[in-house]
UniProtKB/TrEMBL annotation, chain A:
InterPro entries: Glyco_trans_4-like_N
Domain (Glycosyltransferase subfamily 4-like N-terminal): residue spans on this chain: 1-200
Keywords: Glycosyltransferase, Transferase
Annotated signal sequence range: none
Molecular function terms, GO-annotated: glycosyltransferase activity
Record keyword Secreted present: no
Keyword Glycosyltransferase: yes
Pfam families: Glyco_trans_4_4 (PF13579)
Protein name: Glycosyltransferase subfamily 4-like N-terminal domain-containing protein
TrEMBL record, chain B:
Superkingdom, natural source: Bacteria
Organism lineage string: Bacteria, Bacillati, Actinomycetota, Actinomycetes, Micrococcales
Record-given protein name: Uncharacterized protein
Organism: Arthrobacter globiformis (strain ATCC 8010 / DSM 20124 / JCM 1332 / NBRC 12137 / NCIMB 8907 / NRRL B-2979 / 168)
Amino acid sequence: MANAFAEDGWDVTVLTVDPQVWSQISGVDEKLAESVHPDIRVVAVDDGGAEEPAKGDLRRYSRFRIEAPYLWKDALRRRSRRNFPEDFHGAWLKPASEAARSIHAEKPVDLVMASASPYVAFGVARAIEGVPYVMDYRDAWAFNTISGAEDFTPDSAVGKREAEYLNEAAQIWFVNSQIRDEYARRYPESAHLMRVVANGFDPQPGHARPAVQPAERPSFGYLGTLQYVNMPLQEFLDGWSAAFGPDSPQAEAVFRGKLSASGAAGAEILEIFGSGRQNGLRYDGPISKRDVAGFYGSMDALILLLSSGKYVTGGKTTEYLATGLPIVSVHDMENAATDLLRDYPLWFPAKELTPEGIANALRDCAQALQEPDEKRWAAAWAYGQQFLRSTILEPVIAELRGIAGYGAAKPQPATEERSQA
Amino acid sequence: MTSAKPLHVSIVVGRSSHPQAVIDDLWNRALGAVGQQAGQMTGTAVYAHDGAPTVAAGDHRLTVVPLAKARGGRFTSLVSAAAGKPGPVGVAGRLLRDNLESRSLARTLSGRVDLQEKFRSSDVIVAADLTADRSVWHLRNSTGAGLVHGPIAMLHALRESLRK
């Protein structure tokens, strides 16, 4: 997103946690970092202790943490919420707010884009008084987008704080209409500020229309963070065996990406992939975002495994669509993602999340791959290109020019004195 | 990553349902992080088991050392039963169970002179799970190695070792 603003001529400053912290808690995609627009200034800030539970540096562990890790974590959780009502991340409010004010003092900021999660970013956005801010929800703060369970009510203390933030925002962004509608129901007084800004894909080097050729033993790819706790993974594994046989499978499935949000993985999931090799399944580890086109180019079809829940779109859905490859959907058809996929010419949904339902979808896809229809493949490619992130962001960024007080005309970057933090 | 220094990584696995998968994952990730220098890297993986040893080294550069878990008494059984219960009893049970298991593993490891020596000469020592943390944490005054919990911190520590 920052690149899109920079391309549009904005002077962009990104406020984020120190790269050393990122390296400790999740790793850094160096190639992706290199693709950040050269005019963007990145201000790295100390995490204020917010990421301490995720850091695995045992030298920093206290005896209390070693003796009673759950109690240590709970004590930290409670302490972190004193500044902002979000577990652990609340501790980032102070250092990040100070940094935001410093950026503003150095060069006045015209607009703040606050992307969650963590939601403490919304608190930081308000640290610069009088500057309009956009709340960019990727998930929902008030409820769980997978289970739908409410985390706090609108009339709770946190709900009232969220309502105040929403009321005073310049715009409020959601990734799909399902989350927006629920937020509009909860906070009707701010509904007029809410809009859907869908996820888009960023074309990476090598992004190209796939070759149309028959595949007798197709390769199915999965790319993304495998949130296996919430995904129908076991159903998929059973469906895979049912479709292609357990011993000498007629297809292969290659999984790439992280096995959890942090990158760590439970022993059970590691065992699944370790023992799945005879089944044609394998896990090849994470991949740089900059290399995804090469991976897609080596696959015949893709597997879209998503958590269930009507609010779930999935960050990778548009990226999958943009490949022009057949997509086998293994998720609840009530998911928000279905809205994007319904008209895709190469969509093979599992109509039921049962082993047989999934096996049928995989078989249907494999059959289509044996004699691919060029027109259908071409239509799929054309359909997917509409989700280019820059195309999605162009009109909303143009609107934000007005909010920042610069009209809709594209400014000259060299002379503009605006910035977006 | 320009250092030509050969690295040694040690892995300590406490309670795990699939120690083979955990060790393979950590070792493969370590190899991936070190990249072209992987040929020079060696490793020692230690894991606790309460039956027959089951883990095999999938790589000649990795040495796997099984450690038999000390047999628990009646108190240990009571704690394990409590750990499976819901509510505050379960929380207390899990806290106590993990604490006892980590102490037991640390005691066993501290009695192994050969392993202590191996740890002291390691560049990075990784605890694979909560019950292994104490054993690695105890080494903080006897080695300058990176002492970490989990794969992500291990990768960070390896990158830092290579930069030195």
